[in-house]
Amino acid sequence: MPPTLRTPRLLLDPYSPEDEESFVALFQDTRVSRWMGDGPSPEADDRALFGRIFTKVYAQDLFDVWAVRRDGRLVGHAEIKRTDEVEGHEIVYALAPEAWGSGLGTELAEALAAYGFRTLGLSEVHATVDARNTASLHLLGRIGFAHVRDIEEDDGGLTRVLTRPAR
Q1: Distance from C-alpha of 21 to C-alpha of 25, rounded to nearest angstrom
Q2: Which SUPFAM superfamilies does the entry link to (predicted)?
Q3: Mind listing the pLDDT tens digit for each residue in 17-39?
Q4: Residue 2 burial by CB count (10 A; 0-12/13-18/19+): exposed, middle or buried?
């Protein structure tokens, strides 16, 4: 299980079974899911993904994944994991649209990077972002991530790989 992390306005803690409906609602919101993985998925797939957090990720201690809460409500999802695509550890995060535009994304990305450096002892962390997701690209650039290369996806889309070294 991942440790609990706190930022000035957010609590990152392990998911509980009671979070399923909020998790599914977050991933079913196409404003969010269009930027996640391969894009929107059927509800049944998101429910199965939620189940795998417990049966696989937490049970086998594969990587750190958190529910992101503000004032006791689930407002996002966060993880840091080793991926071959970036040949290192990648931060992944999503916030519900009602949390956008208030600096919470910056707070969340900073917390994930700091966890990677301080707790995991990484010398750099990475993020992969759809080239059309200008809000995330701008946010990551502001906190020290630099574009290092592009990945051309099978569907013709472009994913930007960004890297931030430890400071």
Answers
A1: 6
A2: Acyl-CoA N-acyltransferases (Nat)
A3: 999 999 999 999 999 988 887 77
A4: buried
Structure tokens at 13: 């803690």
Residue bearing tokens 């992390």: 5
Tell me the helices (H) and strands (E) count for the chain, helix number first: 5, 8
Give residue 115's Cα distance to chain centre.
13
Residue that is written with structure tokens 């949390």 in the block: 99
CA distances for 149 relative to 41, 111, 117, angstroms: 27, 24, 22
Using CA atoms, how far apart are residues 35 and 88, in angstroms rounded to an integer? 21
C-alpha span between 81 and 84 (Å, rounded): 10
Weakest mean pLDDT among 27-31, 89-93, 116-120, 153-157: 153-157
Q: Supply the pTM of this predicted model.
A: 0.94
